[in-house]
Amino acid sequence: MKQITFWFDVVSPFAYLAFEHLPEALQGHSYEVRYRPLLFAALLKQHGQKGPAEIEPKRAWTFRHVHWQARRLGVPLDTPLQHPFNPLPLLRLALAAAPAAVQGPNRRVVEAVFRHAWRGGADALAPGRLAALAAELGPALDPAGTEVKALLKAGTDEALARGVFGVPTFELDGRLFWGLDALDMLAAALRGDPWFDGPAWAREGAARAGVKRA
Question: Model pTM?
Fold first, then answer.
């Protein structure tokens, strides 16, 4: 059975849609998923970028596009009252609720934090809602404690070291597949599509000369 690592930040609507659509997209394949929270803002900082929601024309397109995608996939989606929001409380809660014997939260926990943010159109960080979510998940660790904070930082650092630059990212056999629209490509890799045994993957991923902006 193949293992897929799903790198995500709950702030991303595309990560939410990918999470919801994953079972359908990979139907018929044998796999297990390891869910790894990370801080998307740290990826942006590392690569000197702004998030899509921080650039107004891009924000407008992103949310039009994501709602169209949600309709196409049949996934309920409501834009949170405030976006972008600080995802740290939700990411830490997901890690705090992870069973002690498992590296990373299980699908039930990840589903709860994603749906908390992306269904209903409420404020993802409203104190009452966060308290209700914490009561539902029953975290084994203190979400605001140093252990959980260290786990999130370590996961983010590991993602950066592995070449993750955006969310959602799926890792399979050492290869990274970025974005909701990469699910078809991930499914092809799972079923052993011969393209992945050819030269294109390495050739097209190699560095090459090109104009660089100052």
Answer: 0.96
DSSP 182: G
Summarised one tens digit per residue, pLDDT across range 58-111 is 999 999 999 999 999 999 999 999 999 999 999 999 999 986 656 789 999 999
Ordered by start, the domain boundaries in the chain are: 2-205
Between the alpha carbon of residue 95 and those of residues 9, 39, 141, 153, 166, the distances in Å are 12, 12, 8, 11, 20
**Residue 213 pLDDT class (50, 70, 90 cuts):** confident
**The pLDDT of residue 184 is above 60:** yes
- Residues whose CB falls within 8 Å of the CB of residue 151, separated by 6 or more in sequence, listed in order: 95
Write down the CATH superfamily of domain 2-205.
Answer: Glutaredoxin (3.40.30.10)
- Please name which of 54, 40, 52, 13 lies closest in space to residue 152, comparing C-alpha atoms: 40
The C-alpha atoms of residue 176 and residue 164 are separated, in whole angstroms, by 7
Q: Are the C-beta atoms of residues 11 and 85 closer than 8 Å to each other?
A: yes
Q: What is the DSSP annotation of 97-166?
A: TS-TTSSS--HHHHHHHHHHHHSSS--TT-HHHHHHHHHHH--SS-TTSHHHHHHHHHHHHHHHHTT--S
**Residue 98: other Cβ atoms inside 10 A:** 22
Amino acid 100: pLDDT: 63
CA of residue 99 relative to chain centroid, distance = 20
